[in-house]
Amino acid sequence: QKTAPMPDDIRAMKGGTPIVSLTAYTTPMAQMMDGVCDFVLVGDSVGMVLHGLPSTLGVTMEMMTLHGAAVARGLTKSLLVVDMPFGSYEESPEQAFRNAAALMRDTSAGAVKLEGGTHMAETIAFLVARGVPVMAHIGLTPQSINTLGGYKVQGRDDQAEQLRADARAVSDAGAFSVVLEKVPATLADTITGEITIPTIGIGASPNCDGQILVVDDMLGLFTAFKPKFVKRFGTLGDDGRAAIRAYADEVRARSFPAAEHTFSDKAPTK
Ligand code: KIV
Ligand code: NA
After folding, report:
1. What is the pLDDT of residues 5-32, one digit of tens each?
2. Which terminus of the chain faces fewer neighbouring Cβ atoms within 10 Å, N or C?
């Protein structure tokens, strides 16, 4: 019986078979990927994907706690990682520890993820020294969308050096892995070769040490827009719309419920 990997086990997958991961926000979705993914991330993308928010900036600790606990109930064989929401960790290492500890306590997550490179290194070291494994997230960091000026590719041209420095900083600070989002493939490869912790790509490179996607994107369930780096492996959005249309037609035609879905007035004899 396989048990869930720990952050150190994920770290040890550097350079080996690629690390497989997806986001999840609910128990049934977590159950579908349990043991198939090495780790499952309760991303703050939950705000856009499940709550209809325009960005991840409106996501709260309460939302991360409720969805984190729901996902935890669906996992026994994959590591659970929970995103720290905007405003819950940037102020100081102490603030970050207080909120990371609350998330780990209330969700039973084995690690947290936070956005930022060089400027978050001190906080990452502070958390790791106090028992909080940290996954870093650099490149396109959606919580900084207002200062980045949009969902642009990060690390092109003269930005490349800064991104390499960010990767080294989070690795040196003790992060057990780092997400690289929307960065040029060649830069992702350079970074993957330069640091000792696994890189988890999303819109990065097949040579990263692992990959992650937002599960609703890859299932074709979230269809409001599709980033270039998303591949739809399923058509659940289309399937769902067709099923709802078929249900509506059958209700209006009185062909649902059929006899097999209704109950007789006599108790069945044993
Ligand atoms: O919130 C999220 O889903 C993420 C992943 C896309 C890395 O941060
Ligand atoms: Na996120």
Report:
1. 999 999 999 999 999 999 999 999 999 9
2. C
Ligand 1 atom showing the smallest separation from residue 56 Cα: 1
- Omega prior to 257 cis, within 30 of 0: yes
Q: How many CA atoms, within 13 angstroms, populate the side-chain half-sphere of residue 262?
A: 8
Cα gap 233→58, rounded to integer Å? 29
The bound ligand whose nearest atom lies closest to the alpha carbon of 49 is 1
Residue from 90, 91, 94, 181 carrying the catalytic annotation:
181
Active site annotation includes 250: no
Q: Which atom of ligand 1 is nearest to the CA of 23?
A: 3
How is residue 124 written in tokens?
């990452």
Ligand nearest to the CA of 144: 2
- Residue 113 marked in a binding site: yes
CB 202 within 8 A of CB 211: yes
Pocket of ligand 1 (CB under 6 A): 23, 41, 43-45, 83, 137, 179, 202, 212, 214
pLDDT, averaged across the chain: 97
Residues in the chain, total? 270
- The rounded distance, in Å, linking the Cα atoms of 12 and 58 is 35
Residue 10: how many other CB atoms lie within 10 Å: 26
Asked if the ipTM is above 0.95, the reply is: yes
Q: What is the pLDDT of residues 86-109, one digit of tens each?
A: 999 999 999 999 999 999 999 999
Q: For residues 111 and 9, what is the distance between their CA atoms, to the nearest angstrom?
A: 12
Query: What residues have their beta carbon closer than 5 A to ion ligand 2?
Result: 43-44, 83
| Rounded CA separation 135/128 (Å) | 10
pLDDT of residue 37: 98
Whether the predicted pLDDT of 216 surpasses 70: yes
